[in-house]
Amino acid sequence: MQTFKTALRIIWAHKLYMLLYVLTFGALMLALGISSIIAAGNDANASSTGSSGTTAPSAQNAASKLPKANIAIINRDSGNLAQGLHEYLGSGATMVTLQDTPQRLQDAIARNDVDLIVIIPKGFSERFDKAAISSHNGQSNNLSASNGSSQSSPSAMPLADTTVSYLSSEGVLAKTDVNGFFSELRSVLASGVQPDLSSAVRYVVRQSKVSSLSPTVKVVKEAADTGKSMANSFGLTIKLSIYPVFMAMTTCISLLIGVFNAPETRRRLNASSVRSYELSAQQLLGGMSFGLLCWALYYSIALLAIMPFNHGFSAISVLAITKVGISQLVCTLTSMAFGFMIGQFRASPTVASAIAVSFGLILMFTSGAAFDPAVMPQAMVTLGKLLPGWWFTTSINDALGLATFQTPHPSMFGWLQSMGLVALFGCVFVCVGLAGGRYRSAHAEFGMANRVTELTEH
């Protein structure tokens, strides 16, 4: 195991990269993700506390105790739903007008011009109205069902597209007000208090403006909604790991492979009595030990952050947590394969670090981890689908059952497909690295033979 120990010493000799990529950038991404987890957990606790009373506080009273957020509403649908949401949030937030173009929406989030963007998709009002009525009819059918007969489940409620600035806590809190508006609206429609969607919107807005009285509609946040919010925050924490993990794996593994592939080191290894495949296996074991350590460290911290709000795995199931862990592990191994490929081309530490930082940023910004793909330009979406980062974040959505722009219908099969594509990228990186290393070795041996021949002739 001498080669294995040497591999670990080589990695430890470059501990500056570990300190920079694993600890510094890893801690930054964990801080962003954990802040989202804490906000979702506090929202769940506040909802459970409010449900024990007689009435739920209005959006206006809740917003008066919180800092105002800058909110932009993009209306791509007809009807008064967007206008009603604008009036509902206006008393406790600053409403911002944005041009409905992918570039402008992305710039607004990147520059922190807004804390929250709410997009009402085309046809949303009609789908929301039908789903609210369908949910009420489905509950009535389930109550009247007898003899154990099964009934069809009610239609899932459509969701408005929301994008929160990762630098703003106000945006996370404002999103809860948006969810509260749609929850109240669904309750009004399902109860039949108002005959149609337009009347229901006006009713909810009117009730929110009554400061001395609580709304007559009691809103209790369902466990499914709380679990979805918690799963979204946990998924965000894992998605953001793609940047520090990719940079650390690419830089350290490429340096490790580069040292062992140096001409002098290679000649000494070839002259030793240890078989070549044993040497390669020990090198691989040393690199994988470092990769598994980074994966276990990041995933354990994210898991510890979510567990206080996941009592009895009520919000996120054990199966979902396991699938998320496997997704991150496969992404870590793929990053190691990319580092192996760079090392086979004998890139210098400076070049390897530059490639890791540049390609890591490309992966993060095109994968949907840093921005909601719904507001990304089509060119970035197309580029993202050609890279492993997109399929890594897609696998996280499928694992947690999150219906998003990337995964409209999350499923186990979709998770397996995404994981297979990420693993396939890793296999391609290894094959390219082996081919490149073989090409360089063959040409180096050919050049050395020519030099020996020339010296002999002279």
UniProtKB/TrEMBL annotation:
Compositional bias per record (Low complexity), positions renumbered to this chain: 137-157
Subcellular compartments: Cell membrane
GO molecular function: ABC-type transporter activity
Keyword Membrane set for record: yes
Signal sequence, start to end: none
Record's GO cellular component terms: plasma membrane
UniProt keyword list: Cell membrane, Membrane, Transmembrane, Transmembrane helix
Disordered: annotated span: 135-157
TM regions (residue ranges): 20-41, 242-263, 284-307, 313-338, 350-371, 415-435
Tagged with keyword Transmembrane helix: yes
Membrane topology (UniProt): Multi-pass membrane protein
All copies of domain ABC-2 type transporter transmembrane, residue ranges: 62-434
Domain of life: Bacteria
Name of the featured protein: ABC transporter permease
Organism this protein belongs to: Bifidobacterium aquikefiricola
